[in-house]
């Protein structure tokens, strides 16, 4: 079995972006110390263009070898002409409208998203898990399958915005694991799902 981990950046009040989903207000907190943490522990969560720009293409995957993202999140890369934003992993993009995959490394999941994710989770473990990249709608669809949360909270309040989960109300309990704090006020918390 492999774990499905929602690894996500959010504000103190739990939003992953402004009301349209734009997360640029969080970018300044990825400073030298925070980037060093990402490079050391989660290098695969840095996108391919980011890795190339910073000369990090050689860094091995530490936690995940597969990424799942929603079409709206994928569009951000597509708009920059990038068809494989996480080329160092297997990429799955959920979409009923995208049609044929624009890239050989990207599998478009148009039907049975839940079944596809369950099949990925059921694969034999190799120590690496599945990175649920977002956004809100996709995380809401997959909320019951999430085994772990890694929440990067930046010290900003947005007041309103895109919630971490686009789902209905239901209480799901998690137990707190590692907590990491940074000089700039960012906090990274890891939670395991209580089943
Ligand atoms: N703060 C962060 O760390 C972070 C991380 C990631 C994303 N974001 C933000 O999140 C925003 C996007 O989130 P979002 O909620 O609008 O969209 P999203 O979750 O990225 O994508 C939603 C799309 O996924 C597809 N989809 C969802 N459920 C599906 C299913 N069961 N089967 C097949 N396809 C399915 C649909 O695509 P079709 O319409 O093509 O059918 C749907 O429109 C972006 O603005 C981005 O900036 C923030």
From TrEMBL:
Pfam families: RibD_C. GO terms for biological process: riboflavin biosynthetic process. Residues 2-187 form the Bacterial bifunctional deaminase-reductase C-terminal domain. It comes from the Bacteria. GO terms for molecular function: 5-amino-6-(5-phosphoribosylamino)uracil reductase activity. This is Deaminase. The lineage of its organism: Bacteria, Bacillati, Actinomycetota, Actinomycetes, Kitasatosporales.
